[in-house]
Amino acid sequence: MGTFLVFIMKSTCCLAVFYLFYRLLLSRDTFHRFNRMALLSVIVFSIAIPFIRLVTDEPATVQGTVSDFERLLQMAGAPVEEEGSFPFWLAALFVVYAGGCLFFAGRFLYSLCQIVRLIRSGEWAVLEDGTRLVVTDRTIPPFSWMKYIVISRIDMEESGAEILAHEQAHIRACHSLDMWLAGCCAVLHWFNPAAWLLKQELQNVHEYEADESVIAHGVDAKHYQLLLIKKAVGAQRFTSMANSFNHSKLKKRITMMLKQKSNPWARLKFLYVLPLAAVTVAAFAHPEISRRLEKVSDVEFVEVLTSQQNKKVSQAEKQKAVEKLKQDAEPTEQESVQMKQGSKEMKQKTKAMKEKAKQSVVDMKADAVEAREDTQQVRRDVVEARNEVLEDKKQMRKDKPEIEMAVNREPREEVVVIGYGSMKQQDGKVFDILKKDKPLLRPLELKSNMRPAKGVEYAKPDPLVILDGVEYTGTLDKIDANKIESMSILKDERAEEIYGSKAAGGVILITTKRVSK
């Protein structure tokens, strides 16, 4: 569903733009056969260009293993679009579009049945060129369709020669095939005015071409024009599928007969299609446009309906899920740290309130319970990390590095401070952290909203990266962030129990969108 809607949107834009330029540049020229080919080319280009795809997206590069680790944590902590959250209006739009296509396709088939029934009810005769003449007693305007010419008995007796010459010109040029193509285009683009205008313009060109052929065969132009006026007064077309003798654009037909032939070099104006096609392809390849279209093309009609059904969860089940999450939220211990930097003394307190944690849980959407297991794991890890990170930061002097603090959930006698300067334990004792001890310092954990302190070196090895179930030996900046579906992080003993000693620096589990599908 999504892919087809994207195709229709692109095709609609191409059809409107190409027809507009044709109307401005070529519609007044007398190259009727050339203009006919130009209109058919507009339809073909409008169908073909949406299939041309240029890829311009490049994965963003981030330098450093620590920066990659922090970037992944930030991505994990960002709001994740939940399953089934795609707007239902897209499915409704598809239903409306499909209904319009069915309606106009039914009208198209009804016109075809009318023609077939009328041909079967008339008297047949085969002309010298193999054309089948059908004479009927019904009072209808003459028209041609495929190899058949349908004419009333009255018109046959009054002006049969001129009318037959006109309709035979339609048959020789295979104008009925053009009407088939334009009719199918109008069914697919029933909501697009450009499709109907293009079909009408193609019918006009057919009549110009047939009129030119009649006059070229020796029929008097003035007599032929009077015949057109006579047949056009009060007459109605039988069907839009056929090429009718009394086409409604009578003034344009007569004007085109009297108009001076256009300069042959005017055909070069059709070359406008080349830069115009390049511009449309480049526009569709623009990252901002292509990303939005890809979101639509990835959606299936059945998935949208299923997601809406899954949202109909009883209130009791939602409340039960929320209560369970409340019970899992445990308060963290309060820690206080006093630090002395030069002549300034600062005091930082960290406090994680249980009520605040409960309120965060209550605000969570119950729909998140239905998310995939890996997404839930990432969210839980990030929530735990956020509860532990010290939110208050003090900016030191420009010549001193920033001081970052982290509190472990497990009870500790003291809090390790990353940076240079002095540290005071809870008992009030102050001891110095010398610059020469810099290699011995490392952070307890790297949090998603923290920046590593300047000048700090890490003793732990690089984290092990598992990409789609396989160990990934490359650098993280080679992975396109737009293709990541979910990620989770394993740390400490839990990582080493599963992956062994090579997971001493932690494990990053990444699942791409291609595998998750």
Task: Label this structure with key terms.
single chain, 517 residues, alpha+beta, 3 domains, four-stranded mixed β-sheet, 17 helices, 49% helix, 13% strand, elongated, Plug_dom_sf
The share of residues in helices is: 40-55%
Q: Which of globular, elongated, flat, extended, rod-shaped describes the shape?
A: elongated
The strand line-up of the biggest sheet is 1-2-4-3-5
Q: Tell me, rounded to a whole number, the average pLDDT.
A: 71
Name the assembly state.
Answer: single chain
Please provide the count of β strands: 15
Word description of this protein:
- This protein has 517 residues and is α+β, with helices and mostly antiparallel strands.
- It folds into 3 domains: 2-55 and 90-295, no CATH class; 334-456, no CATH class; 460-517, no CATH class.
- 49% of the residues lie in helices and 13% in strands.
- It is built from 17 helices and 15 strands.
- It has helices at residues 2-25, 32-48, 65-77, 89-121, 153-172, 175-188, 193-216, 221-232, 250-258, 273-285, 287-297, 301-310, 315-328, 354-363, 373-388, 492-499, 513-516; strands spanning 123-126, 132-136, 143-145, 148-152, 243-244, 335-341, 344-350, 404-405, 417-418, 421-424, 430-433, 464-467, 470-472, 484-490, 507-512.
- It has a 5-stranded mixed beta sheet with strand order 1-2-4-3-5. Strands 13-12-15-14 form a 4-stranded mixed beta sheet.
- A hairpin with a 2-residue loop joins strand 3 and strand 4 (148-152).
- The longest helix is centred in the first third of the chain and has 33 residues, at 89-121.
- The protein is elongated and about 100 Å long.
